[in-house]
């Protein structure tokens, strides 16, 4: 059974930081490209960051220089370090990979 379980969301003031985690099981984590997506109310889900099995990364322009995606293959865990958070970063954040999604973790940034 595949499970992707996100954690680390919460309420933070603008300019603050959060670190999201996604614990994966049931997949060969190290072989898979892993992604962080987000969806704000009334908006479509958007890809925030991606990390391939070889370690190369992609970021959407709006988070470049503020967010860092990383992975620990020994722990089957994906991370998203989010710094200099802005109110527009408020959304439900999901990890996804190998055709599966987690349940999401809410990030709320107050101004």
Q: Summarize the biggest pleated sheet.
A: 7 strands, mixed
Mean pLDDT: 97
**Mass-distribution shape:** globular
Helix/strand order: EEEEEEEEEEE
SS-derived structural category: mainly beta
- Total count of helical runs of at least 4 residues: 0
Strand content of the residues, in percent? over 45%
Radius of gyration: 13 Å
Give the total of beta strands.
11
Head-to-tail CA distance between termini = 40 Å
Low-confidence stretches: none
Structural overview:
The structure is a single chain. By secondary structure, the chain is mostly beta strands. It has no helices and 11 strands. It has strands at 3-7, 10-13, 18-25, 34-39, 46-51, 57-59, 67-72, 77-82, 91-97, 100-101, 105-110. Strands 2, 4, 5, 6, 9, 10 and 11 form a 7-stranded mixed β-sheet that branches. The protein has a 4-stranded antiparallel β-sheet with strand order 1-3-8-7, with no helix packed on it. It is globular. The model has no long low-confidence stretch (mean pLDDT 97).
Topology summary:
Elements: E1 3-7, E2 10-13, E3 18-25, E4 34-39, E5 46-51, E6 57-59, E7 67-72, E8 77-82, E9 91-97, E10 100-101, E11 105-110
Parallel strand pairs: 2-11
Antiparallel strand pairs: 1-3, 3-8, 4-5, 4-9, 5-6, 7-8, 9-10, 9-11
Short recap of the structure:
The chain is mainly β. It has strands spanning 3-7, 10-13, 18-25, 34-39, 46-51, 57-59, 67-72, 77-82, 91-97, 100-101, 105-110.
Key terms:
single chain; 111 residues; mainly beta; 4-stranded antiparallel sheet
